[in-house]
Amino acid sequence: MADILTSLSSVTALPIFGIAVAFIFFFLAKLLTRRFDTPLVNPLIISVFFIWGFYIFLEIPMENFNAGGNIILLFLPLATAALAVSMYEKRHLIKKAFLPIIIGTVVGVIVSVSSVLILCKVFGISQDITMSLFPKSVTSAIALPLAEELGGYSAIASAGVFVTGVFGAIMCPYFIKWFKIDNPIAAGLGIGASCHALGTTQAIKLGRTEGATSGIAIGLCGLLTVIASLFL
Fold first, then answer.
1. Cα separation of 123 and 110, whole Å?
2. CA 9 remoteness from chain centre
3. Biggest distance spanned by C-alpha atoms of the chain
4. Positive/negative CA dihedral, 105, 107, 112, 117
5. Number of helices (H), then strands (E), in the chain
6. pLDDT of residue 201
7. What is the DSSP string of 118-183?
8. Consecutive sets of 10 residues in the chain, 232 residues long: mean pLDDT of each?
9. What is the DSSP letter of 36?
10. Distance of CA 205 to CAs 45, 46, 165, Å?
């Protein structure tokens, strides 16, 4: 029995095991969410709970999962580069609505950054935690290294980005409906500026213009957040 447990531990510690678990459970979550046409059922949220439950049930250390998870993180810089490609492909849209896009993304960054700084100050949150939450509304590819550069923790930054993105992905369709936002450019900018790539998955479902402007907002807000960090 001891030999079996030792062998199992060795297998789960392999990077390919963590990668396979992540892909399998995300694929299963995608299949499940196809049966429900509602933002409340998000494949990322479901897959995360699947993975947590799997590792907790089998009592596998999360360090074993991170062996593969860290490899997945290596692809985040490529995701950052892909944002530039997306912005270039939608350059005609940027030219068409240049001023609203610039104003919208600037306002989005100001609101995101100032809300973190003010609330952390009010509740007496330490400087390192504050800097970890500072880039919560930008994509992980930018948020994690930026948080570390500012003296924060990438793990907390990752959690902040995840919670922000999931909340936005779930609620943005309802906010657009409740506040009667009829302009697709405004809707897309709001989603991309507040809840990055996870929200953009919902923006794409709303329409091509919403998805395009949301993708543009991700790149611009990431750039503006980095610039804002220079003044801290």
1. 20
2. 31
3. 67
4. positive
5. 12, 0
6. 78
7. HHHHHTT--HHHHHHHTTTTS-HHHHHHHHHHTT--HHHHHHHHHHHHHHHHHHHHHHHHHTT---
8. 53 83 88 74 82 85 79 73 69 83 92 94 94 91 90 90 88 88 89 86 81 86 91 84
9. -
10. 18, 19, 16
Which pLDDT score, from 0 to 100, does residue 224 have? 93
pLDDT at 19: 87
pLDDT of residue 2: 43
**Amino acid identity, position 192:** G
Whose tokens are 């960090």? That residue is 229
Which residue has 């794409």 as its token pair?
Answer: 204
Tell me if residue 104 falls in helix, strand or coil: helix
Packing angle, helices 43-57 and 15-33, rounded to 10: 130
pTM of the model: 0.78
Residue found by looking up tokens 């790149």 in the block? 219
Q: Give me 142's structure tokens.
A: 């930018």
Element (H, E) at 64: helix 62-73
In angstroms, rounded to a whole number, what is the distance separating the alpha carbons of residues 194 and 105?
A: 9
Tokens linked to 124: 């007496």
**Angstrom distance (rounded) from CA 16 to CA 68:** 6
